Amino acid sequence: MGGAPRDGQRKIQNNLSEGSSDSLASTPFHRSALLGQPVMANTVASEQPTQDGEPTPKAFGTTRYWDERYMRDKEPFDWYARYDALEGLIEAQAAGKDVEVLHLGCGTSRLGEALCGAGYKYVMNIDISRACVIAQLERYASGPHRNNKFMHGNACALEFPDESFDLVIAKATLDVIRCGKGAEGNVHAVCREVSRVLRPGGRFLVVSHADDWEEVLEAVSERDAGDARRAFGWTLERAKVPKPQTDPRHPDGAVLHVYIATRDDPEDERPSLAALKGVGQKVSSLAALGALRPLANAPA
């Protein structure tokens, strides 16, 4: 991934110690940990490169690193934004609440719990770390939301039938993959798998620090058909949402980039993000959006 996309990768790496709305992010251990779907690797965390005593971005691309992390700390933790900051956006993208949701790279996030609590029909949370999945299963063994499920799995090779989900959410997940070994091939594999398991009209919601994912998707789709619509069967839009401010080192006005990929369905009548601008309280989390525009590789 050469050229401009490298700028986005550097931005992701610079933000690996930020992005959480949880006060735990102020501790060195949590600053060094980013929830997500890591790339498969065979080295242990202690063997990873470090800088100032903390793992470099490459360390996040190992399964054993995440297993060690979750064996040491099983407490719930959400990166980038909690559900309440994304609620309006998610509600706008879902075709009602009678939908089935796939949460990629769940870590110890409470997103699935929040979605089920809000009335969504079913949430399947997956992560590459067995330790993390075990921790979540233990936490929710006697919980009220039996439709909040957890499963060990790899986002690059999903173990679900075609057209199984209405909404797929990846919060920080693709950022982690992009910083790992074999990033281009793994990003391509995730996009291919998400397109496969989405039902027609289903949507893939990506929350990221990077503002150049359209260029990355163009690069990874060249091996197939030359543009993301033809390669993955979806159209793309991008929006910005205010980033929760918990770190005094960074000024107000920072944003997270949210990418919406809609699997092609001629009968889908849900509005685009641009059409939702200014709708009101129902999508109040969109009120502070910056410029809304289609991605460069979306059809006119």
From TrEMBL:
* CDD domains linked: AdoMet_MTases (cd02440)
Instruction: Provide ranges: composition bias, Polar residues.
Output: 11-26
Record's keyword annotation contains Transferase: yes
* Region Disordered, annotated ranges: 1-28
Domain of life (superkingdom):
Eukaryota
Q: Please state every residue range assigned to the domain named Methyltransferase type.
A: 102-206
Which GO molecular function annotations are given, in alphabetical order?
S-adenosylmethionine-dependent methyltransferase activity
Record-level GO BP terms: methylation
Q: What family is this protein classified in?
A: Belongs to the methyltransferase superfamily.
UniProt name for this protein = Methyltransferase type 11 domain-containing protein
Q: Which organism is it from?
A: Pelagomonas calceolata
